[in-house]
Amino acid sequence: MDDILYKNNEFTYAYRVGAIIYNKEKDKVLLFYGNDMDYFMIPGGKVKELETSEQAIIREIKEEIGYDNLKFDFAGVSEEIIEKGNVKIQQLSLIYKCVYEGIIEKEIFKSIESDWINFKWMNIKEINKIELHPKQVVQIILNEKNHVIEIIKDKEKAQEVINN
Questions:
Q1: pLDDT tens, residue by residue, 18-28
Q2: Does residue 98 belong to any structural domain of this protein?
Q3: Is the pLDDT of residue 157 over 70?
Q4: How confident is the model at residue 105, as a pLDDT?
Q5: Is residue 163 one of the residues assigned to a domain?
Q6: What digits encode the pLDDT tens for the residues 53-63?
Q7: CA torsion sign, 129 to 134 to 135 to 138?
Q8: The whole model's pTM is what?
């Protein structure tokens, strides 16, 4: 099955899922960054055709990190609209939360799926001090909101979103 991703010459639409994974003490959250990225994101990926969002988040986390047997609960929705010059993107992400009960052996580690993806357990008290994309998802991480909307007008960041 293909990813749910629509593109034409002027517009891209993506349907994604994201995971907020806390450690068992709930004082850290797992984020990722690419070798060429200067910002963090929550783990996740695109939903495939005829796949539920819950199936997608379980698949994505197993593919990227190898974690399985996690119990995910729906946490919220993140909408992004990016419009700058010839870049027009709309992205809808359904966000799930869970607690990783295992032992954290490394604070920083590589994805099992891709060499360029790095994961880091980030202290929640530091979450507002880092560059997180989309920035508004921090409100879901901190249980302040369950629906966030972010409009990006920076062409450089818009190009980064297209590439990821």
A1: 999 999 999 99
A2: yes
A3: no
A4: 93
A5: no
A6: 999 999 999 99
A7: negative
A8: 0.90
What DSSP string describes 27-91? SEEEEEEETT-SSBB-SEEEPBTT--HHHHHHHHHHHHT---S---EEEEEEEEEEEETTEEEEE
Q: Contact, 102 vs 109, CB < 8 A?
A: no
Model confidence at 163, pLDDT cuts 50, 70, 90, reads very low
Q: Is residue 123 part of a domain?
A: yes
User: For the chain, what is the domain count?
Assistant: 1
Q: What pLDDT, on a 0 to 100 scale, did the predictor assign at position 118?
A: 97
What CATH number did the domain enclosing 50 receive?
3.90.79.10
Residue 8: phi, psi to the nearest 5?
A: -135, -170
Residue 94 lies in a domain: yes
Q: Phi first, then psi: what are they for 153, rounded to 5°?
A: -115, 5
* Residues contacting 16, CB < 8 A, separation 6+: 44, 45, 46, 47, 91, 92, 93, 94
Range of the domain at 114: 5-158
